[in-house]
Amino acid sequence: MPTDLARRLAYQRRIARMTQQELADAAGVHVATLRKIERGARGASDNVVEALAAALGVDPSRLLGSRDRAEARVHVAMPTLSAVIAAYDVPDDGPVRPLAELRTAVDEAVTWRLAAQYVRIARHLPKLLGELIRAFHLAPAEEQAETAGLLVAALRTADAVAYKYGARDLSARLVDLMRWAAPHAENALLDAAVAYVRTETFFAARAYAPGLRAIEAAADRVPVGRAAAALAARGALHMRAAVIAGRAGLAEAADQHLAEARRLGEAVPESVYQGTAFGPDSLRIHEVSVAVSLGDDHVRRALDVAGEWAPPRDLPAERRSGFYIEMARAQLWVGLPHDAFESLKVARRIAPQHTRDHPWVREDAGTLRRLRRADAESLSNFAEWCHAGE
């Protein structure tokens, strides 16, 4: 009898217009194995699910289906991740791959973070972090700076999962380790990226005033230069400062930081710099975020942006889904519940894991459910999918 996985896999394969042979070849799985999975005659390991999802171009959660199942896989990894970073100064013995292979592994993990593939990160990052910590302690002098930079990138990737899933203490420890490792990388722009991430701890504590001071100080420390990477580092910090100022209700400060970020963003192409997406498109998304945070008359600015622009597909999935989550909040604010629900559905299609566990999504879905008691079943299904009201 077909299992839930079997039905979802067959459904996604038909949507992708792939034969079983084509999918098996793309995923590196034997076609006989794929046929058994689709019949429900056998299960699939995590590695096989990930390979099939990648070949289909969907998030693994589309095949796993159950929110609880996907979320459980993340939470199971948290104690292991915590144990790995607790031993950062006395790591376990174990193998360490050559630097080039570690670089490839970290690049792949960063790609997962930008795509909001949290289940995959949770499965692979504890082992990778342990290896990178060993590599850092064993690295010869000429490799230590790069190894430290790779460690920071991996810590940031792990932090994305910890923060999104509410493990705030673990997230704060990961940020502290990033701040410990970053100076060893001897890269001032990487220090700026760590300062960008550190604001999560201020957001979590709602300590907006000290958070704004910290990020403004970090922006002042970025080396002055005309290179795109330096401009983007300063621009990203001003972009982040605008958001935290918006959360604090400081409209004038938010506008000043947005103006500076806009000036810098116009000088660089949209890209990922030191792990942070920055450029004209990212700036527009943050303008929406600031407007929604300020509320009242500012919300109209967010709707004006949405009326003339949509995030391009080449932006990271996490950032694109964030835009539609913010838009849903703005639309709900001005009394457009249907539009808000459509925005939430778009966010889910782009990055289901990021959308499902976003606190604003749960709050807004719960509100929509209350406002539209007689609405179609899809709204109830959506609210249950993200556990709205919990």
Describe the model.
With 390 residues, the protein is an all-alpha fold. The protein has a domain at 1-65: 434 Repressor (Amino-terminal Domain) (Orthogonal Bundle), CATH 1.10.260. It has 21 helices and two strands. The chain has helices at 4-15, 20-27, 31-39, 46-56, 61-64, 67-86, 99-114, 118-138, 141-164, 168-181, 188-205, 208-221, 228-247, 251-265, 280-294, 299-308, 317-333, 337-350, 352-356, 359-371, 377-385, and strands at residues 271-273, 276-278. The protein has a two-stranded antiparallel sheet. Helix 11 (188-205) packs parallel to helix 13. The model has no long low-confidence stretch (mean pLDDT 91).
Rg result: 22 Å
Q: What is the level 1 CATH name of the domain at 1-65?
A: Mainly Alpha
Structural class: mainly alpha
Helix tally equals 21
Q: Per CATH, which architecture of the domain at 1-65?
A: Orthogonal Bundle
CATH superfamily (homologous) name of the domain at 1-65: lambda repressor-like DNA-binding domains
Give a count of the beta strands, DSSP E runs of length 2 or more: 2
The largest β sheet comes out as: 2 strands, antiparallel
Strand order of the largest sheet: 1-2
First-to-last CA distance: 34 Å
Query: In the CATH scheme, what's the topology name of the domain at 1-65?
Result: 434 Repressor (Amino-terminal Domain)
Poorly predicted residue ranges: none
Mean pLDDT: 91
Query: Which shape, going by the Cα principal axes?
Result: globular
Which percent band covers the strand fraction? under 5%
